[in-house]
Write a sequence for this structure.
């Protein structure tokens, strides 16, 4: 799956849940709380493939899924730039995480970074529209 397809599919799933919560008069705080991993696993089991395995993407006691993907993530399916003849398809705007080499492509590895999963970060960057928060992430030429 390309980054772009994942991005658009995820945006649709996120929007459907947020619309449901807004229609039920959830406040900003209640919406953020709803996206807590333990709650999402029970109530929105199709949102993330890891829920089916009862597995967290990061080892955190309180992990929040509202900003999965992270506003600092940048991607371009055709490549952002090249490094040693390898295409860099994704990277971190604030230079956290690590690089992952897969074949002749380099991807951003966020597995050791918890930045977007903290409630305080989500609250500071909050918008009901996930795509608006992520507006800088998609560098694909459209
Ligand atoms: S390394 Fe951390 S801050 Fe950077 S894109 Fe990944 S999750 Fe976001």
């Amino acid at each position: 799956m390309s980054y772009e397809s994942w991005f658009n599919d995820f945006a649709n799933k996120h929007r459907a849940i947020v619309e449901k919560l807004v229609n039920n008069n959830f406040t900003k705080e209640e919406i953020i709380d709803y996206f807590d991993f333990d709650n999402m696993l029970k109530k929105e089991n199709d949102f993330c493939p890891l829920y089916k395995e009862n597995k967290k993407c990061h080892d955190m006691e309180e992990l929040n899924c509202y900003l999965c993907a992270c506003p600092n993530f940048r991607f371009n399916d055709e490549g952002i730039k090249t490094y040693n003849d390898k295409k860099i398809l994704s990277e971190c705007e604030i230079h956290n995480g690590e690089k992952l080499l897969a074949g002749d492509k380099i991807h951003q590895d966020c597995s050791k970074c918890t930045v977007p999963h903290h409630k305080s970060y989500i609250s500071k960057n909050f918008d009901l529209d996930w795509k608006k928060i992520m507006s800088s992430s998609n560098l694909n030429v459209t």
